[in-house]
Amino acid sequence: MANKCDGHNAHFDKTKEEAKKLIQSPIISISLAFFLCFFSLYISPSLSIMAQNFPLVPKPLGGASDDPLKRVSLIPRVPEHKVPENVGERRPLAPRTGEEKPFGEEEGHHLAPKPPSHEIEKLSDVVPKSVRPHESEDGLPKQSLIFPKPLGQRLGLGKKAPFQRGGRPMFALSDDRVMLEKVSKTHSPDMLSFDVISLLSIVHDIFKSHVPSLDRSPSKAPLVFKDYADYTSFEAFAELIDQISCEIECKCMHGGESQGLMSSGFHLDSRHTAAFSVLSLISKYRWDAKAVLVLAALAVKYGVFLLLAETYATNQLTKSLAMIKQIPGISSQETSFNKRLEKSRVLMQDMVDLTTTIIKIYELPPHYITEAFTGHVPIAVYWIVRSVLLCTSQISCVSGFRQDQVMSFMEVSEVHENSERLRKINAYLTEQLNKSLDSIKEKKTEDEYQELIRIFTTMIHIDIVLPLLRLFRSIDFLYHGSGHSKRRVGIDALSQKNVLLLISDLENLEREMYILEQLYNDAWQQSFEILWVPIQDHWTESDKTKYETLHSGMKWYVLGEPWMLSAASLRFIKEWWGFKTKPILVALDPKGQVVSTNAFPMIWIWQTFAHPFTNSRERDLWAEQEWNLEFLIDGTDPHSLTQMAEGKFICLYGGEDMQWIRNFTNLWRGISKAADIQLEMVYVGKRNPKNGLQPIIDRIREERISHTLVDIFQIWFFWTRIESMWESKQRVLKQRTTRKEEREDIVLQEITSLLGYGGEGGGWGLVSRASELMVRAKGNVFEIALTEFDQWSGEIPSKGFLRALYDHLMARRPPHHCTRFMLPESSGIIPNSVECTECRRTMDKFYLFQCCLE
Asked: Higher model confidence: residue 178 or residue 796?
């Protein structure tokens, strides 16, 4: 052994001598000199710059600096990245030993390879939970090769994660179908149920409780104290909630905390296992009940903590408990725990929102809870449980919590991603829920609509009250009287009465109201009652105010709260009774049978004589009625009726051309003198009068050209009566079977011609006396006939003035002259075809949309 050592020493001495000779050689000396020059010129300045950028501040030995939590990190930072104030001195570093090497190998400083999944659990023995990555100003870590990727990047989640995968929402960590199967295996309900809405309401009250010592936001108004005496008793579930709370607490205390590098692997698997353990405890409840029970367990934990925080400064018992639990920092508003609490509260609200949606889903009829819900609600409940575990971990971390300790990146990332996940699930389920609710609403509306059709068309009733109750549904009262005498009454006040339903909107009622008020007297009230039913698709506050103003001046009955009318009732009124925008008057007999879908035409034509507004009454009135001037102007112009009673001829005319009006009236003055007749001319304007007619009326009066109807309203009523005649005639003729009767109806032809004259706006005229022949023509035709008075004046003694004028007009009528005819708005009475009253050809059909045209 000694010989071997001596041999090694001799060999070493020999090698040393050879090295000295090599260094002393000229070539080696030149090489060393060249290297020293290169080092002084290039490498030495670079090292100086690095020393300036990354100075190593020496720390004195001993004292506080020996604390490993106060070592300064030597990891270089980019200059523009500032270090937060609460990060730096107390940054914990993993202990370095020759065996552990957590950051890399000793030689070469290579990064340590990522341990396999089966070895992750061993890291808990190596890396302490206090290890945290470097953080930036916003609390998030700076990217560094020595730290793992963010949770969202490693799991493929986060804001940029796709919401859909193959047409299905993607919520689970792995395949959502696999997760659904696993979660569904924990579900074995036995039809147990309780008042989940009330319990969730209590939980929500706890979550949103305001504690000044913890909430940095401006002080809020104190919550109104709620009396839970009426809520369902939860005594049967108190023990279960305690069990859930203990299970959650136990799992969180044994690996569920999300702190340090261990959060990157260990706590996820642990929380996953804990979630299934909690789901097993509540396997026999419905999914909505599971979510509420788990939230209740979290609320108990959270509520106890809030009570400690709220009474910490004023209650000795609370202070003592807080000292034992090592939570003195809750008394300071500046602790970083406030940030932890704010993020947890956001997650709590997301859980409450999602749970509320799940509760609404299970309020649906069973056959509406389709796969769109059952395929995602279990996943939603699973993530609610996971989020409860996360929040519980955050609250449990208060024990021993330091004021300068901040949330790790893994904690921030997990809370954020859980919130995003819950919101995405809630958005999807809410969308599906709204679709189901719309479908249910449509089905309900259709059923109610078909029921109304049966009630008012096929069913026989003994009183009008029942049909009205079904039509108005949720509205059960009326207003009656005007002014201070108005009072609320029940719908049964209309029992065994004839009722006219005045259906209108809030804009087009003034003229109808004016005429009805003139007709509504004691005689009317003894025969029938009027009930106003205002119709609006969408009611605003201004609409409700206008409704109050309108009905305050009405003498008759008014429907209370008309904005509560169901969609089925609105549809029935529009489709079966033909309401659009023009008011209609639906007549009901004492048994609730519809005798007329619009009694306005009969009332405008015959006033009270139209009662009881039945179809048979309408036929009888037309059978008795003669077509003459007295019938045409009845109720519209008392002056003309007086002149007619004195035996004068009355010439009605219209038009908008003042020059033509002057020429036409001057011709008639000459004719009346030449024919020795007494003539009164009356200007009646045109259909749908606008403001443009008022200047013409004023000019006629100023120049004393002729008599005119009193005002625009009187002109409107004159033409409305003619439109009502056309509508009433069409309704009567509709009951006949042959078209020949319609073509031979002289009255309908005359009404149609007048509507054509009034709709065009051009000049026209009509002359007659009392019950004699009425002669009408367009302005230019009439003008020519008057200028040719000498040609037909000789026929006057034998034929009479009107017959002689009529024969001359017929003989001089152009071979083809037609008129334009615009149909009035009516209750669905639009014939398939209309013949021209002049040439008897079928008129072409057009659609006219008109607004504010003069």
From this structure: 796
